[in-house]
Amino acid sequence: MNPITRKMATFLTITALGTAVFPLTTNQAHAATYVTNVAATATQLTNQQIEVAIKELNSLGIMNGYADQSMGEHRAITRAELASLVFKTFNLEEKKGESVDLTDVNPDAWYAPYASKLVELGIMQANNGQFNPHSQVTDAELEQVVSKAMQRDVKSVHHWMSTFYSENGSTTRGETAVLLQTAHQAIPSEQAQIQSVRSLNAITLIVTFDKPLTAADEVFSKAQTDFALSGGLTLTNMPRLKTGSIATYIVPTSVQHAGEVYSLTYKGHDAGSFEGSGTKLNMTTANQITNDTFEIEALQENGVVDYGYIISAYSGGRGANAFVLNDQEQAGGKTYQIISSMQARQVVITPEGGEPIVAKYVPFTQSTDGKQEPKFRLPEGQTLQSGVTYTVSSDWANINNASFTARSFDSLEVASAQAVSETSVEVTLAQDPGDELFSGRSVTLTSPNGDVLTATYKYSSRKGATGVFDLVNDGTLISGTTYTISPVGDWSVASSVTVTL
Asked: Three-state DSSP class for 296?
């Protein structure tokens, strides 16, 4: 065969896969008639990577060979073959979806049950009932299919494909095997156990498991129980899977004591020990943003990144701003500090000549509008006094410019409101408050007979100047009743704003 490169200028020649004889099924024997031989692809994949991946998938009964006893590692993979491999890799047999009618798939074809199942589950597409079983699979399609099948973010799958991905290139069976080998390792398990733990900074652990956690095991209330730490150290929010990793998690903790050795058990099993870190996060500037709220800025250009940009759960929403850090917390040759969850964090703000005040983190404000600026709010009823200089301090952060002189801010103005259901209203301000300044705020809704309902802002619901407020204490709006909206506290004002369900 005369190799023709499609992805790089050099050729890749795969050595024979030893003398092993791979099982051959009737399905694969027929499949061989549908596959067009393509040139060996020149990629950064090594012979050994492809050989190991194919052997592993073969041993698992996922990938089989052809009638000529080859594995066809250089052949372009078809949609029919991909459907079979993905079905087996992720054990999709028991998954249920909406039945479909594939007009170009013979019900007796070897690949028919695989194609039907993947289309039923929305993993592969069949426009107008056309599955196109013999079409070659592109790298872009492979990326999407695997992401959907394993319910993992596209950014991670793309990272796993980085050694061979080409924007418009077709995918070979060997390349597919390498990706599916990685993806198979990244299937969540209830039996996941910790392989290593280390302290990254004063409020963050890096914990690597042998398998990813299930969604149920990631839930904060369960994780709090499963992760048992010595020395009074606690989890402050749920563990978050790093983008691009198999099973490495960012785990936020209460503030560690530098040099103290902590032990960790997970689900009752000893998971080792680690030394508490004294490393504080390098924050840039403290700024006032309302009469009772201030923020602390951090900059990626200074090597500090909010975890929202590097965790699997958020990568889809961060678009091109999401990226992958390696095991040394590096990307593009730069090492980053990671700001883990700010949930339950607090700082101290001290007025010049006055007593320190504890300010608590405002939920869901640490990384919004493309900025890394977690917000902190004074206790209810307290405000920053205009003309007074305040200094912010923390046991988890170093703040380069920690002082500011307070000024008076005009209250936000409620322009209108409308009911979206019997338990929710949309509140629109006269201008976009930006940076989730709705967060932690409430309004009251008063009926003509004096009944008062309270609604609190639904975190992360803001779209421009409009945010959703949900009624609390099982309150409901009565159809046909007109309610008058009033902000709770001085954060906003409203003049004759009403809402009717």
From this structure: strand
